[in-house]
Specification:
It is built from 6 helices and 6 strands, in the order H-H-E-E-E-H-H-E-H-H-E-E. It is 42% helix and 26% strand. It has a 3-stranded antiparallel sheet, sandwiched between helices.
Length: 181
């Protein structure tokens, strides 16, 4: 975290946890108090001295000293790199590499969510399917690099002209899908 021992003395781990992760740390402490014989693990973010966030895997256990006083021992391991890699892999699994838009699988997942929502609350949504006519001609006459650039620009155009809460995806080839959420 970039601090020396003197700067850490008198501080609680709670000083370094962002507000939205405080409930996670509080739950970890409660689990340790309820089941003091077990080791407990949890991941959450810590704020570094330069306001940078890191992900840590905390291992915590309630321990007693020779005077029967209890303390919570928490050892944190920086897992930021692994967390970032997991997020990157998750993003790649749900997004089109060329346009950066969601892919067909993510589009299908979103449609299934909305169908369940419609069945539950009767809400209404619009679905639009867009297929670029004569796209093969662009690839055949101008080359695949030009076709790829056209798809990227089409994705950018869709994103720029939709509302923030709407959802757009590249379904494959020259096909795009849009959901009015």
């Amino acid at each position: 975290m970039g601090l020396v021992v003197e700067e850490l003395q008198g501080c609680s781990i709670f000083h370094f946890i962002p507000l939205n992760d405080l409930p996670i740390m509080q739950a970890l402490v409660e689990h340790c108090l309820v089941n003091s014989s077990s080791v407990h693990k949890q991941e959450f973010k810590l704020v570094c001295h330069d306001d940078r966030f890191i992900w840590v895997r905390a291992t915590a256990k309630l321990v007693e000293n020779e005077n029967q006083q209890s303390s919570l021992l928490v050892v944190c391991e920086d897992v930021t790199e692994a967390h970032d890699l997991t997020e990157k892999i998750s993003f790649q699994a749900s997004h089109d590499a060329l346009t950066g838009l969601a892919n067909r699988s993510e589009f299908d997942r979103r449609i299934n969510q909305l169908v369940a929502l419609v069945n539950a609350d009767g809400s209404e949504h619009a679905l639009c399917y867009l297929d670029l006519d004569q796209f093969k001609v662009v690839n055949d006459t101008c080359g695949h690099l030009a076709g790829d650039e056209l798809l990227r620009q089409m994705g950018d155009l869709l994103i720029k002209n939709l509302r923030k809460h709407d959802f757009v995806a590249r379904l494959g080839g020259d096909e795009f899908g849009y959901i009015d959420v």
